[in-house]
Design goal:
globular, helicase, alpha/beta, single chain, Replication restart protein PriA, 6-stranded mixed sheet, isomerase, binds adenosine-5'-diphosphate, 5 domains, binds zinc ion, 31 strands
């Protein structure tokens, strides 16, 4: 054994990514010859590997003592040329780890670009040298003259500390408000940075183009960067470095960007703040909007949440303060009901399917409306949230169904390549020629997917002639199946924008955000499913999705006026009087949200209560539930802190109980006190670890705090 001449003398706490729930704990001790400030990125030995780590603030008690006779291992090296991650960033990571019940190291390392882990010192130095220098300012794209509603919102955001809920219809000019506030923040301080979060990768290029047009002339091309999982490793690293070094003044990204290192953070915008995709569903299950609010508060940055259909959490927080309800009245709500540039919001037409001939995806009145629009050369958008041709194949002779062999779900029939595909585990097989069970040749698809709608519309509109040119009507489809290849979505959207498509069939992928100029009719052909979901958020989600979809119609007021055809949103339903549709018809989010909130208050559900899920995956359902039951009993026996205020529901199987041969169960925890729930979970973790060892069939367990799907 080699003994160094001068042994390293500084003991450091280092955050490294140990496996989730590892017994190693949060931070590991290493020795270093030189003192290193917290936030320094280092490489350290871990087992037989060398991994990336972050020097962490020494715990108040000096950390866990090393066992007698064990010398700390020495760090392997420092990532030269990188400023340490600052204290606000470390506080954010620390908070997220504690709140979502994960280790600091796991959250810290997941928040860094993956390439940082892989690059050698020389490669990194080269990357740092290549980071672009800011170019000289030129003239900015002219700002629009704000409408009175916009001007009011801008002034309020200027004046108050926030957080702000910008409640504006689609096309009300929310983005212009964001851009104005960003401009003010950046102009006020040469080091200021703004973070703009959007829910989906698909929506970043459009917004980026707008942000770039406004700010690149002022601050240079390098001042605007994106951060999302669709980027390559080197692209992500470049953006991350630019943000970390302060060269990037505006960072645009999906939920992961909430963890970007932004030393000058002055403003955070969370666009479409209600969108479920802000919740991470793997690893640390954080909610980017909630972390953005925490980060803004902690770092003194203004936070603007924007939506046409705010989450009930944000809606409640921005409702007038009521005595005895500390959660109301915390945000400032700014309303922008009018649409700018676009015309009126589309009229909502409800088709009562009970009054229509059976068996057709398109009711006669809807088909007539689509035909008429197409003949005039206008575009229609038909939505169905289910891809494939049919959700299941069925044999009427013996009752066989195309069940997935590995999941408690059907395999979906995809006609174009004659396959049966499981949308949960991916298992794919050829469509059988005859019933595998009885040999019957007549097996039939049940139900409809987008592929079938596309085919049916194609034949229904076969003889329809478009516009004065007199060409045949064209139907196209955009969903996850048509857009697998890189660049496919952009290409297909370009066809729509170029007017080469008359009717676009798609899933919710095309319902959000896209700026279609010539669509005047949007139809949801089968939206009822969500009305009867067991998830209490389903009505809220459905309303938000349908209103978003409606927002794709009539976006160009000039076009609508020239055509003389007011935009319409069609809903085919078996429940025409359902409150969701009644409110949608009036475009009335406020009364719908207030009614939903009253129901939730009565039932003691979020946002009037706090929830967490504990999930268990095992080889059998008994093993999964057995673990949860035992963990629950252990908690009772230990009398955990906060326990008297936390209600534990019995374990239940997940809606899709088995996926890829793994049985899944979950247990819901609910409390009127967020603090009590947090204390309980923290104290429960060690018991869950201990319990795990006693359950052989258990694959894994996890905690989901503030779950977004129950
Ligand atoms: P939102 O983000 O609420 O959907 P946008 O900011 O995208 O709305 O605005 C919708 C359209 O109206 C855009 O084409 C935008 O350029 C235009 N617009 C927004 N504000 C104004 C304004 N004050 N004057 C003229 N056009 C505006
Ligand atoms: Zn059969
Ligand atoms: Zn499957």
């Amino acid at each position: 054994m080699n003994t160094p001449a001068e042994p390293p003398s500084h003991l450091l706490s280092i955050a490294v990514s140990t496996p989730a729930h590892s017994a190693l704990g949060d931070l590991l001790s290493y020795a270093s010859a030189a003192p290193l400030p917290p936030g320094t990125l280092v490489r350290v030995p871990l087992g037989s590997r060398e991994v990336l780590g972050v020097v962490w603030d020494a715990p108040p008690d000096g950390g866990a003592p090393l066992p007698e006779g064990v010398a700390p291992r020495a760090i392997a090296g420092v990532l030269e040329g990188l400023a340490p991650l600052d204290a606000p960033w470390r506080r954010l990571v620390q908070f997220a780890a504690r709140y979502y019940q994960r280790s600091v190291g796991e959250v810290a390392l997941a928040a860094l670009p993956p390439q940082l882990r892989e690059l050698g010192p020389e490669q990194l130095a080269r990357r740092l040298r290549r980071a672009p220098a800011p170019s000289s300012p030129a003239t900015a794209a002219p700002e629009v003259v704000p409408s009175p509603e916009q001007a009011h919102a801008m002034a309020a955001i200027e004046a108050g500390p926030g957080p702000f809920l910008l409640f504006g219809s689609t096309g009300s000019g929310k983005t212009e408000v964001y851009l104005h506030c960003i401009a003010r923040a950046l102009a006020a301080d040469p080091a200021a940075q703004a973070l703009v979060l959007v829910p989906e990768i698909n929506l970043t290029p459009q917004l980026e183009a707008r942000v770039r047009a406004r700010f690149a002339p002022l601050y240079g091309e390098a001042a605007v960067v994106s951060l999302h999982s669709g980027m390559t490793g080197p692209q992500r690293l470049r953006s991350w470095l630019a943000a970390h070094a302060g060269q990037a003044r505006i960072v645009l990204g999906t939920r992961m960007a909430v963890f970007a290192s932004l030393p000058g953070l002055a403003l955070i915008v969370v666009d479409e703040e209600h969108d479920p995709s802000y919740k991470q569903q793997e690893g640390a299950r954080y909610h980017a909007r909630d972390l953005a609010l925490w980060r803004g508060h902690d770092q003194g940055a203004r936070v603007i949440l924007g939506s046409a259909t705010p989450s009930l959490e944000s809606w409640h927080a921005s409702s007038p303060a009521t005595p005895g309800d500390a959660r109301s009245g915390r945000y400032q709500r700014l309303s922008m009901p009018s649409r700018i540039g676009a015309g009126e919001l589309p009229q909502v037409r409800i088709v009562d399917m009970g009054q229509q001939p059976r068996g057709s995806a398109f009711s006669p009145p809807l088909l007539a409306a689509i035909t008429e629009r197409v003949q005039r050369g206008e575009q229609c958008l038909v939505l169905l949230n289910r891809r494939g041709f049919a959700p299941v194949l069925h044999c009427h002779a013996c009752g066989w169904k195309s069940d997935c062999p590995h999941c408690s779900a059907h395999q979906v029939f995809h006609k174009s390549d004659r396959t049966l595909r499981c949308h949960h585990c991916g298992a794919t097989s050829r469509v059988p020629r005859a019933c595998p069970s009885c040999g019957n040749l007549d097996i039939t698809p049940i139900g409809r997917g987008t592929e079938q709608l596309e085919e049916q519309l194609g034949s229904l509109l076969r003889n329809v002639v478009v516009g004065p040119q007199g060409r045949a009507a064209r139907v196209a489809r955009i969903d996850a199946d048509t857009t697998r290849a890189k660049g496919a979505l952009e290409e297909q959207l370009a066809h729509v924008h170029a007017g080469e498509v008359d009717v676009l069939v798609g899933t919710q992928m095309v319902a959000k955000g896209h700026d279609f100029r010539r669509i005047t009719l949007v139809a949801a052909v089968q939206p009822d499913g969500a009305l009867f979901s067991s998830d209490f958020r389903a009505p809220e989600r459905l309303f938000a999705l349908l209103l978003q979809a409606a927002g794709r119609a009539g976006r160009d007021a000039h076009y609508v006026a020239a055509q003389g055809s007011p935009p319409e949103m069609w809903i085919q339903t078996w429940h025409p009087d359902h409150p969701v549709y009644a409110a949608l018809r009036r475009h009335d989010w406020p009364s719908f949200a207030d009614q939903q909130l009253a129901e939730r208050a009565g039932a003691g559900m979020p946002p009037f209560a706090w929830q967490a899920l504990v999930r268990a995956d095992a080889s059998t359902q008994e093993a999964a539930q057995g673990f949860l039951t035992a963990a629950c009993e252990a908690a009772r026996a230990a009398g955990l802190p906060g326990g008297e205020q936390v209600h534990l529901y019995p374990p239940v199987p997940l809606a899709v109980q088995r996926v890829a041969n793994v049985e899944r169960a979950q247990m819901l925890l609910e409390s009127g006190s967020r603090t009590a729930l947090q204390r309980f979970l923290a104290a429960w973790q060690p018991l869950l670890h201990a319990e795990r060892a006693r359950h052989r069939g258990l694959r894994r367990w996890l905690i989901d705090v503030d779950p977004q799907a129950i």
